[in-house]
Amino acid sequence: MTARNNVRYLRDSPYLFDELGGRFHRTAAGVLWRWRTELALTAILTAGTWRLAHMITLTWALAALGGLALGLAVIPYTRRFLTARAWCVLARHRLQKLCWEARLHTRSGRLPLILWIRPTKVGERAHVLCRAGICMEDFEARIDQVRAACFARDARVTRNTRWSQLVTIDIVRHDPLTAGKTIPPRVMEHSRPGQPHLRVITSKEL
Prior knowledge:
By secondary structure, this protein is α+β, with helices and mostly antiparallel strands. The protein is about 45% helix and about 15% strand.
């Protein structure tokens, strides 16, 4: 980038003064909390591999862990369970990224704290603790950005009836009421030339 283009970029950039308005507040406890699932999974896999490597060779230990992962991916129940948990982890990181990009943070750079996120029948449900200066209406005003950030069909925001700083975000990925099978019309199946023939369809035929 030339010096002239660089000056023009600095002049036209809408994010030039973002660093003056607030900086991302990071603490060791906050980083551990945000990456708790990945850190716990890494620790379990490392400890399991180290233990198996002492019992058998490292090659067989890796083969055993690979076979276990393949078995969990093949079984339908465990596959659905792991997929739902993976979406929860992805949704948590996307919500945290959205809070920073959409400026849903305090002036000191503190993001809302995602206390817990769990799978539901239609997607995920996240329980969020709002910092001072953030409220449920801030999330509600950016509901379109929430569903776009989480790759969802829709999103809903509700406030706790007792504690207004606790906000629940429902991420809707699929509608269970949607028909999974469409039955085509069979009224005109047996029609004579020039005149339609109506036939009663029994329950066994459906």
